[in-house]
Every structure is written in C-alpha cells, then in structure tokens.
Amino acid sequence: MRTPSHYSVAMLLVLAGPLLLAHAEERRPNVIVVMADDISARDFPIYGSNKCYGERASTPVIDRLAKEGCFLNTVWASTVCMPTRAMLMSGRYAHLTKWWDNGQMGKLARGGIYQVPDSSPLMIGQVAKQAGYQSIWAGKTHVTFGASYTRFGFDQCVFTPGEPDVRGTSPYEHFRNVKNKQFWNSDSFLWWPEVQVANHPSHPDEPFSWQKTEISDYGPDIEMDHILDFMERTNQQDKPFFVYHTSHLGHQAVDMASPRHNMTWPGTPKLTWDAEAQTYTRHEPKITANGPVNTLSTTYKKENITPDELKYQIEYLDYQMWQYITKLKEMGELDNTVVIFLSDNGTKGWKASVVRQRGMHVPFVVYAPGQPELVQGAQNVVSDLSDMLPTLADIMGTQLPSQEEYELSGKSLWPYLTKQQDHHRDWIYGFKGQNQMVRGLHLMRDGNGDWWDASQIPSDLDQFPQIKDFSNLSALQQKEKEQMEQVLASFAREDVGGPNSFHADSSRKLTEQEIEKMRAKAETLKKHLMQFE
After folding, report:
1. Which among 64, 112, 516, 529 is least surrounded, fewest beta carbons within 10 Å?
2. Which GO terms describe its molecular function (predicted)?
3. Domains held by the chain: number
4. Which CATH number do you get for residue 216?
5. Phi, psi of 96 (to 5 degrees)
C-alpha cells in the first residue's frame, strides 16, 4: 500500500491548451532530454557548491539556461547507472522493474534477466509514440541488456557502442594491444568508437547498420551529428520531435589512443568560448599513429585535444547544449521546445555508488523560452527521476493509464514548473540493492539507516547535520519522519524482516505465477496503447 500523499494527483493527464507552449496549438512542443553520465550536481557551477571534483568547469550555456529557465535544488537518481535508466524510462521504482543495482536485476525462474520492457511495457519511447512524436535515442544504452531496441518505442537509435547482443559484429571493428589486454572499438565510446545506427532512412531495409570511424573521430560528435540531422528531417516533416540523448560524457573510459590501459576521463576536442558573442569554437582534433594500431610499439600524437580531466568533459557537455540551442534557433523552433538537462548519478570520484546524498544528487535544468509561465531560477522542491515519464506525458499532451490499470512511481513535475501547483512531492526515494534512501524537504534517511537534517542546504551540498537525538526534532521533521518510515515499509516485502533487509528479493528468481500476473497487466496496457497506433 503506497502512502496517500504520494499519489494524491491523478495520473490521467490530458493537458492540451494552457499547459502547452503558447503557439503549440498546431504542433506539440519538441522535447530534448540530455543525460550526462556520472556527474553530480555539485560539479556544475550553477549549484554553487564549495566543492567540486578536480578543477571547476566553466559552463556558461548551462548556467544561462538554468537562470533563464529553472533548476531544481534536489533531484535524486539511483546511485548507479542501470537502475537509474530503468527508473527514468519506466517511471517506476525497482520494486516494479526489479532492477535494483548494476548486476542485480530480476531473474526469471526459467533463466535469463527480467527485462525492463517485460515489467514496464510503457516507457518514454512509447509515450512519445502515442503522442505523435518522432523520436531518437542516442548515446549509451545500459538498459537494453539483450532486449532489442525495438521494444523501447523509439523510431531511430544511435548507440555508441552498439547493443551488447550485436556488439563486436561490426565490419569496421579494430583492436589494439595494451600490455596483456586487447581493446576493441566496442570498448570505446569516445575516441574511435563503435557506432551502431538503427532505423536510419539511409538503410530502410535493415534493422541496424554500422558506421565506419577513424581514430580521430569522437563519439559525442557523431551522436550530435545524427541528432541534429534527425531534428532537421523531422522539422521538415512538420512533426514534433523527442530527443533522448544519453551521453557518455562524464563516465571514465578506455582511450583507444592512449598508452595507458587504465580507465580515465579522456580529453575532448579543444574549445574556445567567446563570451561577447556567446559562441563556441571547436578546434578540429587530430590523432596520428606512428604504426599499425594493433601493435604494442605504436605511439600516438594528439593535436587540439585537452588533458584527461572531468572538467573538460563537463565543458564539452556545455558546448553540446550550445549546439542544441543554436540549431533550434536556426530552425525557428527554440520557442516551441522544452529542453531538460540532467545526470544519471553522482560523480565517480565522489564514490557515486554511496547510499547517501552525494551518490544520488544530480543536476536538473529545464529551459522552455516559449513557456511564459515556467518558474525561474532555483526551485526548492524535491524530485526523483521516476517523475520524468509522467512529466514528459504532460509536456507532450498525452494520456496515461489510470494508476489502477498501470502503477507508476513518479509524479509529473509539469504542473509545478508551469505554476499550476505550488508544491510537487512530499518525499523522494532512492535504492541500491538492499539499501533504501528517502528524503523530504526537512529530513533525510540514507541507505545505512542514518538520519540527517535536510532543512538547510550545506555549502558542499552533502555534509548535512546528522540526527542522533530524535527528541529534538521539530514538529515538521517528526511528521516527515513518520511519513518516510511508512514509505520505506511500503516498499518492503512482507516476508522479509529487519531494518536492513529491504529488497532482499533483488536476486530472487521470479516464479511463473508472478510472471503471468505481470503479463496480464501488460496485456491491459497494450489495449490502451493500441488506440494510439
């Protein structure tokens, strides 16, 4: 039983007219969602933290989007990649998707992983499709895990590297030796990446194709080339587009042009920012090998490439946000587009997987210049990434099934962001394997069972005062604590006891009866989706 306050807002959302952008009566607003990889909110200047990882990045474009649009002070992802992506794309927590942690996904009794499309057949790709959008998914997957991309609802895909079940089959695959290890293009998603393209109009009769790359080719640039081309083509068809850009930038990686074999933050193409003109210049990178790439003796010369630091990858994300805004202006679509920038979990150097605030606290910026009612600047609300699916449904103006027909964990942010409501949620939730985290506006409980005073945001966004004497809680905090304890209990299995044994079914195999019950719910949902086909 879920706590009543969490689902006090109906999930049947038909939001035409006033909640859409002013001139979007003829065509619904375009939506762009950009997800950074392993970068905490505290590493973006707009959040004002007195700590960051390494040297502080400069992000003039993201700063401007956040100030002219808005950014949320407290948004939680999961602590690691795969559960976050499952939660965002499905709008559901792990008690429904069964994706608790990287490597801890639900298992079928007959063998194999319980795929997200099996537990959650309504995902953001299907939401966009039923709303009449053309959609593209570009960058990192890390949620397919053998499930075909066709089950996620997107019209086109650009994956770097390709899906695991077809990875390594590219005719353009190369390898190089480093010490006692061979690196392949499928190990790389930055320099000299493996690129798989699905449903591209240049290959209408093939489910996917491979793009040839060279050692000086940069994966994030290839992704953007495909995305911008998709936006242009869709705009020419006078259709709204949905971009789901899951960047690799921020994640440590293998560098195919480095003598080292350890993971690092490979350098990016060099950039120059002109503050007066508000423009970026990208300097063409060049990597030269002194011999065959698959030999140990080969060395590489790099030109117009930055040092290996996280700072430069954050700045390259800023450059890509500038590319989006520039393209939207060129197409005349800036005022008819909602842009959302976020991340999937905390920075690797901050020990992203810790079951405390710094493991889950991510940036969340919304920019919609054609929406005059959008709130502006910093917003002191709490949200988690399960809210993305219902939020996108609101923006796109499409209807979701009732909560009885299809349970969602998230709540749409759009009524709050457009000043239709002055409050969003009472609590947000996080998980990692058997650990549960929950937070309100004034109180927080981490995955170790410790409680923290969250009524004030600390200067480093992390070091909240720990609460050891609960007799000193304010009345508001005491009320929050009681509510959050109910939340935690509502996600615990009835046959599992003890304060630290929540989600003990994370590696348990699902029985045929459980699978059949979920399959029946999926059939009900399919009937709902068929009316939009």
Report:
1. 516
2. arylsulfatase activity
3. 1
4. 3.40.720.10
5. -105, -40
